[in-house]
# Entry
Amino acid sequence: MPVIGRFAPSPSGRMHLGNVLCALLAWLSARQQNGEYLLRIEDLDAMRCPRSYAELIMDDLRWLGLDWDGEVLYQSDRSVIYAKYEQILREKGLLYPCFCSRAALHAASAPHLSDGRVVYAGTCRDLTTAQIEEKRRTRAPAVRVRVPGEKVAFTDRVFGAYCEDLTEMCGDFIIRRSDGVFAYQLAVVVDDALSGVNEVVRGVDLLSSTPRQIWLYRQFGFTPPDFCHIPLLCDYDGRRLSKRDADLDLGRLRQHFCPEQVVGALAYAAGLTDRPEPVAAQELIADFSWKRIPQEELHLPQVLQIK
Ligand code: GLU
# Structure
């Protein structure tokens, strides 16, 4: 089966080096297997994601030498499709309205996991029809999906075996926000499945979303893709990269470096080359291997530091 990979950025700002690393590794893997590489703009929250940012992402990808296949998909155009899949879950009796405020969800009394994640306590799970009608008068509900006490396991190509009990680790989760915007968890599954994506490459911060997504794949009768989560990228001082580090976004980096310098530094950080020397993305295809990508945090070499 031909490989279909993708890059699915959220255009809430300029791409930073963590996004670029993800785009690069997904592209290398797809291209090395003579596969396709799709581009999807995850702009579900259209207010936070103006089209101008998406244009900049495409310009940055071209500058880096990362080409994509076919039409670019915009999630903001696809709510009718997501609604169809929401309806499938509704017909299975899996959905219910949730009126909990953000403050109530994050209250100290709510169950928190050691990594800070909040497990939904199930407050609105068993509301009666009368209670729902009453609450609807004052507040628009979000839509949650009822998860079973089921362990979902998969093998990540970088991080190996991973297993999560959905009830213990996340609880019922949101598939549509109270403002009507569909949630990432639903949209990503529907879009990847309908586009035929069979290889998902993304940051390890999304590893813990994967069991929920695999469970949704099964609800819709789709086959889940292979997952390759990539370790976090740290800056020169060993700190996690964040969107606040303007020096690490491409707008700034493009004023100081050529694409080969950026690609060369990232390839070195990811263990693909022995030295942080300039290299074109195309030149990395032949030797690319997931076996080279470590699980530990990756460190940016000094060569990209703006003096
Ligand atoms: N849009 C997400 C992000 O930019 C990535 C989602 C995914 O790759 O599944 O972090």
Observations:
- Residues 108 and 159 are 32 Å apart (CA to CA).
- The mean pLDDT is 94.
- Residues 8-10, 42, 188, 202, 206 surround glutamic acid (CB under 6 Å).
